């Protein structure tokens, strides 16, 4: 390992998030020589660009719908939505509900998530595909509550 400036030069040639994080930690710890260090400034710039690319806007609206499920029939409960930031599914059907994502319809042996009665599940942030639900028996009321965040 060389001097701090040599290490920073190596990081500039490999601007990975780990290397940028090390440079920023050195600033935070007040161990980084700031004056005249173009390499350090580049590392900061690179990290800012990485952070901006990973940022997700906070939801500004939520729409909740109550979905009634027919016995042994898949039902689309969320359409594909490129503006979706997230979703929450609250199972108040009295039955177990199965969810499938994308073009695949949910079914007794074809599902990604099983939500038992009284439980909930959260769709991963920025997961924008369609979602279908399935219950082996009908749910008159209460319902599967679906909240879409955008």
Topology:
Blueprint: H1 4-13, H2 17-28, H3 38-54, E1 62-69, E2 75-78, E3 86-91, E4 97-101, E5 113-115, E6 120-123, E7 131-134, E8 139-149
Antiparallel strand pairs: 1-8, 2-7, 3-6, 3-8, 4-5, 4-7
Structure description:
By secondary structure, the protein is an alpha+beta fold. It has 2 domains: 4-54, no CATH class; 62-149, Sandwich (Jelly Rolls). Helices cover 26% and strands 30% of the residues. It has 3 helices and 8 strands. A 4-stranded antiparallel β-sheet has the order 1-8-3-6, with no helix packed on it. Helix 1 (4-13) crosses helix 3. The two termini are 48 Å apart.
Distance between the termini: 48 Å
Strand elements, count = 8
Largest sheet: 4 strands, antiparallel
Mean pLDDT: 78
Tell me the fraction of residues in β-strands, as a range. 25-35%
Structural class: alpha+beta
CATH class (first level) name of the largest domain? Mainly Beta
Low-confidence stretches: none
Number of helices, where a helix is a run of at least 4 consecutive DSSP H or I residues: 3
How many domains, as an integer?
2
Strand order of the largest sheet: 1-8-3-6
- Reading the helices and strands in chain order gives HHHEEEEEEEE
Rg of Cα set: 24 Å
Task: Bin the helical content.
Answer: 25-40%
Descriptors:
150 residues, alpha+beta, Jelly Rolls, 2 domains, 4-stranded antiparallel β-sheet, 3 helices, elongated
What is the compact description of this entry?
The protein contains three helices and eight strands, in the order αααββββββββ. It is α+β, with helices and mostly antiparallel strands and 150 residues long.
């Amino acid at each position: 390992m060389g001097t701090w400036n040599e290490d920073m030069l190596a990081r500039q040639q490999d601007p990975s998030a780990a290397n940028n994080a090390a440079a920023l930690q050195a600033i935070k710890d007040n161990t980084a020589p700031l004056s005249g260090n173009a390499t350090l400034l580049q590392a900061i710039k690179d990290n800012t660009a990485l952070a901006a690319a990973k940022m997700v806007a906070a939801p500004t609206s939520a729409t909740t719908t109550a979905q009634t499920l027919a016995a042994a029939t898949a039902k689309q409960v969320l359409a594909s939505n490129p503006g979706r930031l997230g979703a929450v599914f609250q199972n108040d059907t009295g039955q177990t509900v199965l969810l499938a994502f994308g073009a695949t319809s949910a079914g007794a042996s074809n599902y990604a998530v099983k939500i038992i009665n009284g439980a909930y599940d959260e769709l991963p942030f920025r997961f924008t595909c369609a979602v279908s639900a399935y219950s082996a028996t009908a749910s008159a009321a209460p319902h599967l509550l679906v909240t879409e965040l955008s």
